[in-house]
Fold:
Amino acid sequence: MPPGGAIWLGVTALKFVSTRGAAPALDLADVTLAGLARDGGLYVPAEWPVFSSAQITAMAGLSYADLAVEVMMPFVGDTIARDDFSGLVRSAYASFDHRAVTPLRQSGPDEWVLELFHGPTLAFKDCALQLLGPLFDHLLQRDGSRVTIVGATSGDTGSAAIEACRDRDALDIFILYPHGRVSEIQRRQMTTVESTNVHCLAVAGTFDDCQALVKAMFDDTAFRDRHRLSAVNSINWTRIMAQVVYYFHAALALGAPGRAVAFSVPTGNFGDIFAGYVAAKMGLPIASLCIATNRNDILARFMADGVYQVHEVMPTVSPSMDIQVSSNFERLLFDLMGRDGAAVTALMSDLRTSGRFSVSENVLTQARGLFSTGTVGEEETLAVIAQEWRETGVLVDPHTAVGIGAGRRHRQDGVPLVHLATAHPAKFPEAVERATGVRPALPARLADLTTRAERFDVLANDLGAVEAYVSDRARAA
Structure:
């Protein structure tokens, strides 16, 4: 903690509101346990807390855990005692392999890679989920209750959530993933966990299908209430809150607040890059945020013409980004549309009924003020992996390569550019080996992963079948 005590001395009970405007405002504890708002919307703070330049300057030199406490306390307020929250944060990041938690590596002149894969499951999702699991436990023990967690994953969220929630008596966790559409390493990190409170469901469909099933379970209020459903996907605000921290961490290391920094973010469900938007709203000087997409480019198309239109999901070498319906984009729309919940509800209704919606030129212009986009195809992704290996001697995974390829198109002279490295290359060994001829090795603690016994069930893309599966196994009622 800086001399003189805590940096943030603001609101004591910040409330959160739904992007659709019809659900009650909640504090952080209730938002964490609820996950999705009862009107189908996503929770966001009723107002954005803002740090002054002096407050941001005072954060320089803090350890990652101490910085995390300072950045997140405005959202926590008095819902959790500061000392208790600090203990949860320090415990969460103690499991990371690197002392810096999310180290910066210089990759070129004014160009950096922010390594977010040093957590237990080798992906950026650990940065939030290793906190969310213990936070669930703390809140549930406080009121003597239990919950049923349901989540959808395109690859990395599932293993990070399972690692954070395994063996916790107060909860059961059910993870839905698209059968045959995640890498073998991603799948095995989920399916080889032996904990009895962990359940893996391979759904015959795409990630968007899995995500739709999770939302449908929340929309089924009788089922939701009976099993006390909660969420670990980035629809849960606490996930976003924890991801804001590494934007501050990187920017401070590169001269903020006296210097603005640009970020390029491999983007699927829009949670990671939305955390960057939140950091900017909180006063961090961010020059731009590049939405880096693979050929599932719905967000790039939206930024081009203001039309958000769902196409068929195409499999790629960067499968965690094989998404067409980016849930967290709704949070950005809510801000861009003047926090008009009814207007957002109308757009989401159009999306559900017709697979598309459009926004005004004013809304699109606002979005373009901070965000740029870049689409990176399959061959270019492999070429970037090869180039990084050839020029820096470092292997990068295909998602990180998409971010690097897109970000370099939007370089601004004199502005440091930070590429978010979202996964360890060993999670996608086939793609990396295809590009470089080198097969990346898993860390020693996971060396036997491919020989461990798996445990999962294959289910149809059917809400009734999934709800029956959960009902038969969930202990919360």
